[in-house]
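Per your request, structure below.
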């Protein structure tokens, strides 16, 4: 079901979430249910006094519980600079010269794509954005979605002049990718026998001066919404991705064996490549094997640029089931396919690479996001509080999936900085059943509709939108949303809810320090 997207709250803002309170430990329906009458109770005037006293007790109890429920406050997005977005490469120890490749990739990551007649051609014919960094911007280039959604201005700004702004795209909501889990019948109902799950690109190049006579309709988002058949994904941050890429399967499997020794109902498995059978690790469902594939797919699916890995223009899933794209919307650059190729005539080594390879290098050489201090309501949180939160995070079972590190990298042939170092991602990189509340009914690889990769938590302190669809910007709410029917996290969230409000606050403070 489509969920409303809310704007980013001020750091340290409180929330009111009555369903969480009343589905928690207690739900008092009446004073009699809270304190049943004894058979010998005097029901005269004294009974009335006793009842008044009990009402007072109940009122105080409920007020106390309410105070506890609302006492925890997400410190919010930490605005102080932590140095996120730098390269992991030490320029003084870069024997292969990859610093130049990082800088080249950083520049290309920010280039704006056009359809044709430009230095950067290939946009469309369908797309979600026209620039890598428009989706990966917070808190630095390579991150997650920004506070101001660039998609909101695509119609008014002439990027998609003939289109209509989808109702779920808002100015201060998350940058979104939309998918329909199922195809619809001719009557507009979900067809459970026809799984879809493919990306329904939001925009078209129709009406642009650089798009010729190409004319396309946007997906019928209203029909998908009416059928409750629309789910969303937000951009994943790419900081530290080169370290994740350099973890070998044996390390991840040994770590998995340790994780499986628990009494919390947590299982977990890995997604695997359909080509070589090895562990995949990038994307919300760990569906992509490498940063090269991750970049190539995004260039093609999100921006419509054909490339050496994905060499055709991509139709919508429903177009793929019929006649594909019309001829008037093919080869819009006029130069043939793929639209992104290597550049052998360039004189510098980095410039010879195709865009996809440059993007992959940029992400590969991004340093992990550094942890930092936390400010809550204008006051610096003591380091002892953050340390206490870290200990509680582990003791209640959160670290069974969100491992502080799943292991140490292998020797890298790229740069020494990627060699033999721990990966403090706070993830096991496994996929887990997250239950009915988070399920999106989209399967990718061996990950089914309720399974997701354990999202790495490094950098959480400066992330705005949370969970796979950006449904909340409140860490407390994100934690509670892990608990639902069949979720592997239900027992752990139960442990979290048993903590005192002070202890819960310590965990929130710790998470915003990452």
């Amino acid at each position: 079901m489509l969920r409303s997207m809310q704007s980013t709250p001020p750091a340290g803002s409180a929330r009111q979430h009555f369903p969480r309170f009343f589905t928690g430990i207690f739900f008092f329906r009446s004073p009699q249910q809270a304190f049943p009458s004894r058979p010998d109770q005097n029901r005269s005037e004294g009974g009335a006094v006793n009842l008044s006293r009990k009402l007072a007790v109940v009122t105080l109890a409920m007020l106390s519980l309410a105070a506890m429920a609302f006492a925890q406050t997400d410190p919010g997005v930490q605005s102080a600079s932590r140095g996120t977005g730098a390269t992991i490469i030490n320029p003084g120890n870069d024997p292969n010269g990859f610093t130049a490749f990082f800088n080249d990739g950083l520049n290309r990551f920010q280039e704006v794509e056009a359809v044709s007649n430009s230095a950067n051609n290939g946009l469309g014919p369908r797309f979600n954005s026209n620039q890598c960094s428009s989706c990966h911007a917070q808190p630095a280039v390579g991150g997650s979605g920004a506070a101001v959604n660039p998609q909101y201005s695509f119609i008014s700004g002439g990027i998609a002049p003939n289109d209509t702004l989808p109702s779920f795209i808002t100015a201060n909501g998350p940058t979104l990718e939309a998918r329909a889990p199922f195809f619809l019948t001719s009557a507009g109902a979900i067809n459970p026998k026809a799984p879809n799950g493919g990306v329904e690109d939001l925009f078209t190049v129709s009406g642009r001066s650089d798009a010729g006579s190409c004319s396309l309709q946007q997906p019928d988002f209203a029909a998908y919404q009416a059928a409750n058949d629309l789910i969303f994904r937000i951009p994943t941050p790419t900081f530290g991705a080169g370290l994740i890429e350099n973890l070998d399967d044996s390390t991840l499997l040994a770590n998995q064996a340790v994780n499986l020794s628990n009494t919390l109902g947590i299982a977990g498995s890995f997604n695997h490549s359909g080509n070589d059978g090895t562990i995949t690790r990038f994307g919300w469902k760990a569906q992509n094997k490498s940063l090269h594939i991750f970049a190539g797919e995004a260039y093609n699916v999100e921006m419509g640029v054909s490339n050496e890995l994905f060499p055709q223009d991509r139709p919508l899933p429903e177009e793929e089931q019929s006649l594909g794209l019309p001829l008037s919307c093919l080869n819009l650059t006029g130069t043939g396919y793929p639209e992104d190729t290597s550049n052998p005539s360039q004189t510098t080594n980095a410039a010879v690479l195709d865009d996809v390879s440059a993007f992959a290098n940029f992400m590969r050489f991004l340093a992990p996001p550094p942890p930092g201090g936390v400010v809550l309501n204008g006051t610096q949180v003591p380091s002892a509080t953050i340390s206490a939160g870290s200990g509680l995070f582990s003791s209640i079972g959160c670290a069974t999936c969100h491992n502080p590190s799943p292991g140490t990298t292998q020797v890298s042939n790229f740069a020494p900085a990627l060699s033999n170092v721990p990966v403090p991602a706070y993830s096991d990189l496994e996929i887990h059943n997250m239950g009915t509340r988070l399920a999106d009914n989209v399967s990718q690889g061996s990950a089914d509709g309720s399974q997701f990769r354990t999202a790495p938590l490094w950098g959480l302190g400066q992330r705005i939108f949370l969970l796979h669809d950006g449904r909340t910007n409140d860490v407390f709410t994100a934690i509670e949303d892990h608990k639902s029917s069949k979720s592997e996290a239900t027992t752990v969230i139960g442990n979290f809810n048993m903590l005192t409000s002070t202890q819960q606050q310590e965990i929130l403070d710790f998470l915003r320090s990452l």
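The chain is about 30% helix and 5% strand.

Regards,
D.
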